[in-house]
Amino acid sequence: MSKISLIIQREYTSRVKKKSFIVMTILGPLIFASLMFLPGYLATREDTEEKTIAVIDQTEILGDILKGTNYIRFEQVKGVSYESLKANFNHSGYYAILVIPANVLTTEKVALYANQQTTMSVNELISNGLSDYIRELKLQKEKISPEVLNRIKTHIRVETVQWSETGEEKASSAELASAIGYISGFLMYMFIFMFGAMIMRAVIEEKTSRIVEVIVSSVKPFQLMMGKVVGVSLVGLTQFVIWILLTLGIVAGVKSAVFHSAGNTAPAAEVSQSIMQSGTVNQAQTVNITQTQQIFQEVFNKLEAVNFPLIIGAFIFFFIGGYLLYASLFAAIGSAVDNETETQQFMLPVTIPIILGLLIMISAMTNPHNQVAVIFSIIPLTSPIVMMARIPYGVPVWQLSLSAVLLIVTFLGTIWLAAKIYRTGILMYGKKTSYREIWKWLKYKN
Predict the structure, then answer these.
(1) pLDDT value at position 438?
(2) Fold adopted by 51-149
(3) Which of 66, 94, 248, 413 has its CA 20 to 30 A from that of 167?
(4) d(CA 434, CA 345)
(5) Secondary structure of residue 113 in the 3-state scheme
(6) What pLDDT band is residue 189 in, cutting at 50, 70 and 90?
(7) CA–CA gap between residue 217 and residue 226 (Å, rounded)
(8) What is the β-pairing status of strands 96-100 and 111-113?
(9) Above 50 in pLDDT, residue 391?
(10) First to last CA, the chain
């Protein structure tokens, strides 16, 4: 077995056996799901703190319109000025003071006073309550019945259908493509940064502990660097593959659980075809189908239109290419310094392209074919992140091929440059490295 293979095996097995790897591999999908859905869930939770809001109604018709909730109560005060309420506010027990001016119908503004920042739930409750009633007043003034307005109110739902080169039609979703692009791009950003930083810290640790002096007596610095880079990349791929299998298992389990109770329900394909052709569900065919099952069926139909083999294959390729590119730079930085504090001056040029790629990725999710997104999905330093955000929308073959070729050429060149820095810097101690010093290392001949 070659020396590089031995180093790869050591780096791989030592990290895979760690408890942190096992825990993150199992809990990773749950943690990512929590990070995406928990903020939205918390934002929709009702505030349980009891609040009483004093209402000064200068119109004398709107004060009783506001309806409170279980925890928010509106109390109309009459014959009391705002100034007197403000003077005794700390002892009044009120949360805020709402002043409805007499000209609110024309200005469409009210004032909410408090000695602290009010919450969005309170502001929205006031705004929605007054807006609905004032809207009815204006409709009556224009002699328009609210019932007529509600009957003619229309919301058009756009069902997108995508056809393949063979003419086959499948339901698609721009929202789903955007979600897949965001998750893929963000995972790419996180993996490259996390595993690249792992390489840098490992190199610094071996250098400061002088273990590297013993290691390089048996292997060449380039072999040591390549073994570390490849070994850690295999750790990342292992984690990614396990996450894919766990996700597929969860999706299959959810699908089975949702449709298990539909004993007399027509097959999913027939239900989907009925919906696509008529826009409604055939009642005779779907005796036991529920609204929840219909929603899940539509989601699964749209998932079938996603080219997951292409997305997964592209993710693996761009992860390997992007990781090798940046990991070699992180390894070079780690070899050039004596401690992690000194890495800050060299980290900025490396992290700027990664962060820029993340920012362009967000723009590419809304407009994947604009010129900026196309250019940065081809530039090797940002292509692993931006290209993954564009692929769910469909990318021309020539752009994907050009991006792949440039990435391969760039990471080969980056590894060559990093190896020249690594072989000199790994054995240098006690001297603060500068960019000028690194430039000298690059000019050293073999």
Answers:
(1) 79
(2) D-Maltodextrin-Binding Protein; domain 2 (3.40.190)
(3) 248
(4) 9
(5) strand
(6) confident
(7) 16
(8) antiparallel
(9) yes
(10) 26
